[in-house]
Design a protein that fits this description.
The longest helix has 13 residues, at 87-99. The two termini are 18 Å apart. This protein has helices spanning 16-25, 87-99, 138-142, 152-159; strands spanning 9-13, 30-32, 42-46, 56-60, 80-83, 103-108, 112-118, 124-130. By secondary structure, the protein is an alpha/beta fold.
Amino acid sequence: MGVHRLNHAVLFVRDLHRSVAFYSDVLGFRQIAMTPDGFRGAAFMQAPDSTNDHDLGLFELGPNAGPSGAGRTTVGLYHLAWEVDTLDELERVAVRLSEAGALVGTSDHGTTKSLYGKDPDGLEFEVVWLIPADLLDQAAIDARKRIGPLDLAKEKQRYGAQTAGGVGVSR
């Protein structure tokens, strides 16, 4: 199976309008008009610079839906990770998540610089910038064996705020 990338994810949510607003206002996704006729309680969304038909499907369960127990009381998906092109963009996302009260953590995984957020239903996601292949060094590769604190200012100084991430690694 020659997988090239994740095409889309589908999430079950309590309140469709609240979730659409979050993914639109905080992460910049846009709603795509592709819900089948007669089908209610669903929205399909595309990330700002995506070439996918859609990146996210949201299906409403209603206000009585319980929280996800994945990783606590049940098996299930922990999170999805979306990649951004530059450290400046990663920093902009960090600010938007913070302003929305949705930033729950940051990490330096050596070759990957990560933000962690939660949507209105508590579903966690990750936003990452990957060191491009031509800038990888042994220190970054060795650091994949630990999780450290993310210092965005230091990373921007080291790699450049506008350096395209993931080149030679994810694209």
